[in-house]
Amino acid sequence: MKINKTLIIVPIIMILVVSLSGCITDSMFKSGETYAQNGITFQYPKDWHVVNSVAEGSVAAVASKNNPKISTVIQQVPTEMGTDIQTACSNNNKNLVLSPNYINLQEVQSTVNGQTVILHRYIVNEDDGSQKEHVATWIQMSNGQLYVLLFNTPLEEYDSQRYAYDLIVGSFALEDQSNSNSDSFLDAVFDRINMFFST
């Protein structure tokens, strides 16, 4: 009986492609520069750098070296906004809807390991006629503190820059817990982020 060589070669090629893509995705996710200040730590792409932010409650900000309009700002949510994630996010949304330039795209709330995560994706029409896409990730950490990780990018750059958002949010942790069991929580958050964007 003759065995068709194509029947053997095609599965081998498919296995190699899947294996390589898994390695590439994993190494992309784990590689980058490390920010560790102000009680938090996260990784960001090597072609980004730390920048100053004047946003209220800002504890860190990083931006693309090639395009400063692509950035992520991490803010500690002030207690006036609310001490639980639902209240704080709801109060923030009340301010957003007052702007005629705001376009809501999607908001998803989920519970991961007993902690709430809210993902809010929206567009803002800028005064110069351009559009910026924003993804606000609201996280309540194990110490009870609320954080918002706000990813900003020109609309046309969103798909090509999402990897940076994945890296920052997927590696975000409290400085004193960066090597503890909080990794399992963040892995679960990262899974929810992927579900959010696939819907």
Can you walk me through this structure?
Helix content is 35%, strand content 35%. The protein has a seven-stranded antiparallel β-sheet with strand order 3-4-5-9-8-7-6, sandwiched between helices. The protein has a three-stranded antiparallel β-sheet with strand order 1-2-10. The protein is globular. By secondary structure, the protein is an alpha+beta fold. The chain has helices at 5-30, 85-97, 158-171, 182-198, and strands at 33-37, 40-44, 48-50, 58-64, 71-76, 102-112, 115-125, 131-140, 146-154, 173-174.
Describe the secondary-structure layout.
Layout: H1 5-30, E1 33-37, E2 40-44, E3 48-50, E4 58-64, E5 71-76, H2 85-97, E6 102-112, E7 115-125, E8 131-140, E9 146-154, H3 158-171, E10 173-174, H4 182-198
Antiparallel strand pairs: 1-2, 2-10, 3-4, 4-5, 5-9, 6-7, 7-8, 8-9
Helix pairs in contact: 3-4
What tags apply to this protein structure?
199 residues; alpha+beta; seven-stranded antiparallel sheet; three-stranded antiparallel sheet; 4 helices; 35% helix; 35% strand; globular
Element-by-element helix/strand order: HEEEEEHEEEEHEH
* Percentage beta strand: 25-35%
Sum up the overall morphology in one term.
globular
Helical content stands at 25-40%
Biggest beta sheet attributes: 7 strands, antiparallel
What ranges have pLDDT less than 50 throughout 5 or more consecutive residues?
Answer: 10-30
Number of E-state strands: 10
**Largest beta sheet: what is the strand line-up?**
3-4-5-9-8-7-6
Mean pLDDT: 80
Derived from helix and strand composition plus strand pairing, the structural class reads alpha+beta
Number of helices: 4
Query: Distance N terminus to C terminus?
Result: 48 Å
Instruction: Give me the Rg, rounded.
Output: 19 Å
